[in-house]
Amino acid sequence: MDYYHGSIIPHLTELHPFEGKENNLKKPCVYLTTNPQLAIHYIRDKSRLWISPTLDVREDGVLVYQEMFSNALEYMYKGVSGYVYRVSGDYGINTVPGVRFAAVSDEPVPIIDSKFIPDVYDAIYSFADDGKFIYDHYEDLPQLRHDKIRDWVLKWIKDGDWTSKPEEPMARFYQEKWPEYWLEAVKARQET
Predict the structure, then answer these.
(1) What is the overall mean pLDDT for the chain?
(2) Residue with more model confidence, 55 or 107
(3) Spatial separation of the C-alpha atoms in residues 52 and 25, rounded to whole Å
(4) What is the mean predicted confidence (pLDDT) over 166-176?
(5) How far is CA 84 from the centre of its chain?
(6) Which residue has the higher pLDDT, 117 or 60?
(7) CB atoms within 10 A of CB 19
(8) By three-state DSSP, how is residue 123 classified?
(9) Residues 6 or more apart from 16 whose CB is under 8 A from it?
(10) Does residue 14 contact residue 108 with C-beta atoms inside 8 Å?
(11) Which of the chain's termini has less CB crowding within 10 Å, N or C?
């Protein structure tokens, strides 16, 4: 079976297990997916501060992206280029909790070939024309969803103790993307 992996790193011949802060399995592994469209979403410029987007893969394979802040998709992906690497093997499916069409390998995975993606934003958006991508803009989300995002952002600010270090890049990210939640977090800190 063919699997895919998105990366900004060029000319790879093998994928190696890694353990990073985004790794929800908390062990070194290679993430793979049977959905090449989903792999494109993992081509990210790590220098762009980000939070994990709300990305759902429906049973029919359609990806639904809900923005966490205004213009999040453009912020994350516009101008970013990278590769979708194709591998083949028996890595299972749905082995990653909460991620449909995903699998992992604890061992290095040889690459068969790759496809260059010149602009990830354009590539992602092109799937909307075929009905394979639904883009829910932040401004159009229901109030219930805004309330949930607010709760998450306030928790992340508190957990990172970002209000005590407002000049740090991540603190500036929160200030820029959610200024009202930042002010709420500052006020809450002052009241404790």
Answers:
(1) 88
(2) 107
(3) 15
(4) 94
(5) 15
(6) 117
(7) 11
(8) helix
(9) 30, 108
(10) yes
(11) C
Q: What is the pLDDT of residues 149-166, one digit of tens each?
A: 999 999 999 999 999 999
Res. 99 pLDDT band, cuts 50 70 90: low
Q: How many CB atoms lie within 10 A of CB 147?
A: 11
What does the block give as tokens for 69?
């802040």
Contacts of 5 (CB under 8 A, 6+ apart): 15, 30, 31, 32, 33, 39, 42, 84, 85, 87, 109
Instruction: List 33's β-bridge partners, or say none.
Output: 4, 102
Answer whether 154's CB lies under 8 Å from 184's CB.
Answer: yes
The strand order across the sheet containing 54-57 reads 54-57, 63-66, 133-136
Asked if residues 23 and 1 have their Cβ atoms less than 8 Å apart, the reply is: no
Predicted pLDDT of residue 11: 95
Instruction: Record the tokens describing residue 177, joined without a space.
Output: 């993307």
> Which secondary-structure segment (H or E) carries 75?
helix 72-77
Cβ pair 145, 137 in contact under 8 A: no
- For the cut 60, the answer to whether the pLDDT of residue 55 exceeds it is yes
This prediction has a pTM of 0.83
